[in-house]
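Example record used in the benchmark description.
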Amino acid sequence: MVVPVGESVTLRQTVTYAVREALSGAGEPVVHFVAPVAWHDIGDVAAGVREETEMLLERVAVWAREDGDDDLVVETTVIGADTYLFGPDDYARVIATYADDSGIERVVVDPQYSPGGNVPILRPMEAALAERGLVVDEAPVDRPTRRGRLLRRGGALQFATLFGISFLFYQLLGGFAGTRFDVATGAVSATLVAAMLHRVTFTDRLGLRTLGRRLVRLVAYVPYLLYEIVVSNLRVAYVILHPSLPIEPRMIETECAVWGGMPLTLLANSITLTPGTLTVRVHGRRMMVHTLTPAAREGLFDGALERAVRFVFYGRPALAVATPRERDDARIVEDDDGADGGETVVSGPAGGDA
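Model output (structure tokens):
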């Protein structure tokens, strides 16, 4: 099947439905995710538009592999980049052409898919696809209301998950001392956090299988984070004890390749826990981070912590996502005197030993 994708609040559910349908069908389970480039993003518009589209497809591929198994084949493609796309017939034409070339007869559509921005072309596009002989299937999703509820359905699994995360984080802040006082106060704090926030923390109800995998990977992540904290402590201690005090404080802006509140929270706090870096602000996937030394900046540019957090939430396939340096998604925004440096980080040899 082919699934046209674009940013929407129900995209994640659509991916899950498409993967489930592919695995339940006869023959080899193959899902083609395609992203038509909107008409106003073609021509002399910044080249970053295509990169953003490819990043969206990478995110969708990670979700699909997380929901599927080893037999699932996931294909992602940007289509229509060399075509003037305006109306529903244009979008239907490029999708149908791709389907014909790939020998596909079924199209699964996200009900909130809106390739033309605010222009309502989904229904005419579906009709045009059907006229071209394709079977159009609209994914059954939970549509959000205009004013969504802050509180969602909770459950023992959500409570236990938030309790465990809060308890481990409390112990991490205390250096895993293991004293009775730390364990008792950690348990009380985690209970209060879980009781008050387990119905607002998770955007989706967790599945036991997905939760189990993430917890196992989180256990592997904690020693890695402790290692990074120890190494960063030694580097900062060296800088402090050095007679010339070789610090180069800079503010860094980076767009992270993680999606969702929990992954972003884990990454932001992990950066702050690592000496030499401090997360100042988070807006969407964009973070402002203060760095003390060149080595700390190079670590952010190379995306070691970002890659580890992706592994926790999305598994091994997510490790293949490019680093912030390779994506040109990190830059120095401030010089020593506070002036805007505007230096964009590009691929190249690292300037530090991170």
